[in-house]
Amino acid sequence: MDEHEFDDFYTASFNRITHQVYAMIGDRDEAQECVQEAFARAWAHRRKLDRAEHPEAWVRTTAHRLAISRWRRTKLGRRPQDRALAPALTTPPVNEDRVALLDALARVPKAQRRALVLHHMCDLPVHAVAAEVGVPEGTIKARLSRGRKALAVLLADGTAERSA
């Protein structure tokens, strides 16, 4: 993969992978940092990516693993950020449906959440999700089924709460 091809790959997939990792871990800033680091590693391994069947899956998996590693490292020593030193943030308008979905996803078990995000948000078929996660296809099908049922209940409860 040459520099131009890598730039095209980065431009085409950075936002999509960031949203996918964000849905898996629930922290937008962390997702952006991990995806950026994953792309830096992908650049260093771009010759391997040339031969890889799915370079986007490689970057997504690397970003997810980075997020897990960072979470483990900072779990005990995490201190609140000093807001006085942070730059002012501008946030886009809130999409209530998206917030409800991400909140519901956060309350679903991690294995089910990852399967749901990879299958529905990343548009991966069941066999590709199974390969990326490293479990049998039947396990992914079960996680998807249970995850959808849990989301349906959580989203129905959230709709009832908003209309009350």
Description:
This protein is mainly α. It folds into 2 domains: 1-75, Rna Polymerase Sigma Factor, Chain: A (Orthogonal Bundle); 95-164, Arc Repressor Mutant, subunit A (Orthogonal Bundle), CATH 1.10.10. Helix content is 76%, strand content 0%. The protein contains 8 helices and no strands. It has helices at residues 3-25, 28-44, 46-51, 55-74, 96-106, 110-121, 126-133, 137-163. Helix 1 packs across helix 4 (55-74) and helix 7 (126-133) packs across helix 8 (137-163). The longest helix has 27 residues, at 137-163. The termini are far apart. The mean pLDDT is 84.
Summarize, please.
The protein has 164 residues and is mainly α. It folds into two domains: 1-75, Rna Polymerase Sigma Factor, Chain: A, CATH 1.10.1740; 95-164, Orthogonal Bundle (Arc Repressor Mutant, subunit A).
Keywords summarizing the entry:
164 residues, mainly alpha, Rna Polymerase Sigma Factor, Chain: A, Arc Repressor Mutant, subunit A, 2 domains, 76% helix
Task: Determine the CATH topology of the largest domain.
Answer: Rna Polymerase Sigma Factor, Chain: A
CATH class of the largest domain: Mainly Alpha
Query: Helical element count?
Result: 8
CATH architecture descriptor of the largest domain: Orthogonal Bundle
Coarse morphology = globular
Task: Kindly name the structural category.
Answer: mainly alpha
Strand percentage lies at under 5%
Unreliably modeled segments: none
SSE order, one letter for each helix or strand: HHHHHHHH
How many structural units, i.e. domains?
2
Helix content: over 70%
Computed over alpha carbons, the radius of gyration is 18 Å
Let me know the number of strands.
Answer: 0
Distance between the termini: 55 Å
Mean pLDDT over the residues: 84
What kind of sheet is the major sheet?
Answer: none
